[in-house]
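Q: Here's a chain of 1306 amino acids. Please give me its 3D structure as tokens.
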Amino acid sequence: MGVIEETDVEQVTLALLDAANDRDPVVQEQVRKSILTLGNQQPDKVLSMCQDYLLKHPKLVVGHRVVVLQTIELVVKSRIDDISYPKIKSVIQLASDEMTKSKEVVPEWQQAASNILVAVGNKYINDIMEEILGKFQPGVLPHFFVIQTLANLSDSNVYGMVPFLSAIMGTMLPMLGMTKQDNMKWVFSSALCRFSESILEYLANLDKAPDPTVRKDTFSSEIYSAYDILFNSWIQSRESKLRLTVAEALGSMSHLMAHDKLEEQLPKLLPTILGLYKKNSEHYIISKSLYQVLEASVNMGSRVLETQIDGLLVALHQQICSPMDFNNPPTVKNHNEVLRCFTILANTFTDRLMVFVLQRLENSNERNRMGSLAVLRHLINSSTSIMETKRLLILASIRQPLADHSNKVKKRVVQVISAMAHHGYLELEGGDLLVRFIIQHCALPDTYHRPPDPEEVTNEALRSMCDNTLHLFTTTVGRLTDVLWPMLLCYLTPNQYANATTPLCKSLILLANKKQTAQEPNFIIDFNAQGSFLYRCIGVILQQCYNKELVRKQLQEMLIGTRHNDAIERTGVAMGIGLCASSHLDGTLEKLEEFGKSDAFRKASGIFGLLKDKNDVDVEKMKSTLILCYGYVALHAPEDKLLTRIDSDILHNISKNFNTKDLTMKLSLIHSVGLIAKAISKSVRKQGFLFSRKQELMGVMMISSAVLMNLSLSFFLSVRRAAIDCVYRLMYIQLRYEGFSLDYKDDSVEGLLDVREKLSNPDHSVLYKTCSELTKIISKRLPQQQLSTLLFMLYDGLVDSQSNCSRASSVILNTLLKNRGAGLQDLVPEMLEVLHSRLQVIGEEQVKVAIGQSILILATQHLQTVVNTLVAYPLPYDSWSCEMWIALGADSTLALQIMEMMIEKLNVMVPFVDKKESMLRPGLTKVTTSQPLAMTCALREMMLNGQSAEAVAHLFPKLFSALLVRLGSSVGVQLPKDLNNICVSLCCVLRVAVEALRILLGRAQLDAVVKPLDQDGAWDKMKDPQQHTTGVTLLSRAMAKHAGPRLPAIVESLCPSLCNIYECQRITVTAFFSELLNHHVVTELMILDMLMNNMMERITDTCGTVRMLAVRGLGNIAVGSPEKVNKYAKELLAAMSSGMEEKDDPGKLITLEAMSGMSKILLYLDQKNVHLLVENDEIRCASIMLLGNLSKFGSGEPVFKDQIHNVLVSLLLHLSDPNPQVVKACKYAMRICAPVIGSEQISAMFQKHLLEEKGLHYGEFINDLTKYLVWSKSFLYYKNMRLVMLLQDPDPLVRVKAAEAMGHFH
């Protein structure tokens, strides 16, 4: 383009400006573009013309003015660096005038002018601020768009605006109270939001900021003042838009509030924000604000937040369950903000959040589950490190939604599984279930009826999603390769996964290629033990084969080639043939009938039979294979063909074997008939069918199942029904003896007839239930004297080699105990001993669980007896005794009672006795008493049961206190001699207490407490008598930091132990309390007074270690709660002074703690309390004594010599103190310090005259001393300076003595 002459530019620009108000918006847009083109060439000229145009046409319609202003903005943005400064100034003036010309708000016009100022402000911020602040004067409400411009400027030019914000907010704050109109409230709120965001951005990038000294607290005061008005007034507005903007501002402002102010406001602020969800249909802004408040709270380590967590979780869960409309972006943004809220809470309240979310997964409501799954997926992806310890819990909990029928829920489940796959969940135990879920849904059938709900997830959509997920697992999640290979092969053959064959094969090919390329050893799969799988593969292939002759040939090879003696292979070939029958029913049935008549079934007989090879196939096993084949053929046969073939071709051929006595065949018959029944049941739902052989089959099932019953019960096959009949008649004979009439019918006895019929059911669960019903009937009529005999017979049955028999014995035993156990109190110890011995030989896990149930049943009926018996078992408890205690933890109510009982006893029992170890050795040895040790072991084992969590939660303060005291009672305590030789490490007294305490913390979900204790080696320190108090201190510190809310109840429970006669308990508890005072949490929880009172009482304890720890604790208040030092100043100073003059302190540990404590306390004493140091005689005594003692260590140091010179005048003055104890202390200190002064004459004089119990003539002593001192000029210099200072002392007596001393020296 050629250069346009200046006159041409003017003409063209003027013409374009005239056309700027064209009715057609397309024309308007083009006009703007054209003027911008001109402006890019001659910006000053074009801007001047735009300005002149507006000035010459003051009555232009608003739309026209807007277009011209927008054009100016475009030119400024495009060529800001090329516009002359004078022109910039005139543009600023024009835009400012245009913006404020009308007092009324005309948004389009004024916004266009404001935008020019913002564009200029990106480079000329000082000029812009000079102009705008001229229209932003204190005491006068500014124009709406003045505030809006300031807000937009802070958004577009953070580094330029932040330095102005403190002054702007200072001017703005008084205006907030003057504001009455909603639109002004809105713009102020919006501005405060933008200001806060700008400040936060500035602080986050201080390395780039022009003034890196800016700090958050620069703005805290103004922000809080603004917060006060917005929160307490404006957020209550009826105007929805204003409420949301205020909420948004509060969220941003929360990061700039002082921590104590935010902490104070949280209990009101959070419920108010949550309440906005109900008042507004638009939720995104609310969730955004909530996230910011939560982030600010967590960043500052809020303790109040924990009290709000329940309400927060409920409200956030309601939000995450709200439907998300992708056509409505705010709903999507809200969803994401809510997930961010969950993330920030997960960082601090992991356990509570996980329990909440996983419990909601159990809710069958569709939206609830979808919301919970969304949260779970987000946390798995965003909080990897936090979720690491929760992986097994999540794997267990995800099983519930796996069974949901809703495709919407299933879609969310697939998303969660995908996230889990990328974070290592699927390699863990239970991960295979999730892979199976994906494959199941790769096999979904088509949706036959299109759902009316457009949000509904069709089978096709879900299937496609699972296909893609499986492909992603194979291609992008490398860690899953060894999980999927060869697992996916197992899904190729089952019929229910037939529709998933294509994606399965694709994945298998990819996996195989990957394995082969990498030459991994597990690429080759050994199928020698996988015959069953291969036969199923053949069956699937034959399904797809349409060559009938080939099918017949393959079936023949399968039947002939099978190892019929192998139960797995028998089942495998039957499954494969059944799968084939789904496509080739007639051909399969013909081949089976032909095989059944073949020579293979002719049994060898006579003498030649004796010569039969031991590897020859057993005919009964071949028949078993054939019977199973018919069952699986029925199961897989097409439904429309099955019912016509069931009698003639299937049941006809297996009925020939109904009378067999072979166990394997009977088992195959039961299995096969069950499959046939299942197939018929499925088919008759869609078509009518008269099952003519039903009774015959039922009879066979009764006879056959009797074999199983013989294995599962202690009745013989031939007498089962007769036995039930006998019991039936015996019961009625007994009733006759009891006086009932001949025609009386007893409901429970009549129930035996029903039981008799149920005994023929082959289902084990039904059999066990039937056993239980039979036992209930018998137990009602069984005489008491026969009951014990039956029970002990059942105990023998628990160790039967046949698992079904042992299981049935356990069912009968527990039913008897439930119904009659209450009358067996005298037998309880003996029964427990038998159960203990049986546990040692039982290998069947289900029976072990049942024995645990037996112990629980006895405990519910005879709690005291059971506990006393088990407590008395030999120590150390063997693994079976431990199992019995663990079983008692399975019932939370019972566990609660037992734990309460033990806590009560532990608190009153003698923990140890003092025994003389040897006649040759002096002194006594502490030896533990057995019952407290046994109860500690018992508590340890009970708490290992996860079901005890509820009882532990309820009793936690008492349990913690009892075990901590027990820990103290175990320090330096030995086992009795009879236990010392029995694997001492298993039952070390201290070790048991430490383990119980650690398990308690774990069961109470206090992992945050356990982790630092593990890292610091605290458990080993607690077990070491030399480091015991250090270990307890670490425990106390961890509890204070991570379990604050639990402390009040713990402290209350521990207080009585401080008065115990056992000093070891007092030491442990005092160490725990002492460290608590090091943390501010005790003030927040209002237990400071209680702790301080206890520490003050322990100052006079008979045990030196307790006194030392008490002094330490009192000194710790200066660290934990410095603001409380002056409240307790008198007591603290007295305690420290007492500690510093402690006489019974061989290692000077108490003195050192007192000195340390005093140094910490002095930092926070106010002027009023400093006088206590001077006025308190005890403190003066202690300080002077301390000075004397210190001279022993510092006599050779020049610095110490200077100090002694400095204080000698004060000591001389205190020789005339009214308090005789102070005078004694001075004499002592001066005698000890005398060698430091450096004069033999003075030292000799001090040793002679300054004896504590000897009187002293003060005036004569000073006169004599002065004669020696005047010879030392340096000493006189120190003394003069010190005396001059003492003349200014507030105490008149000190001033008098100083003047007197100066007279002596001069």
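Q: Can you summarize the key feature?
A: The first strand starts at residue 912 and ends at 916.
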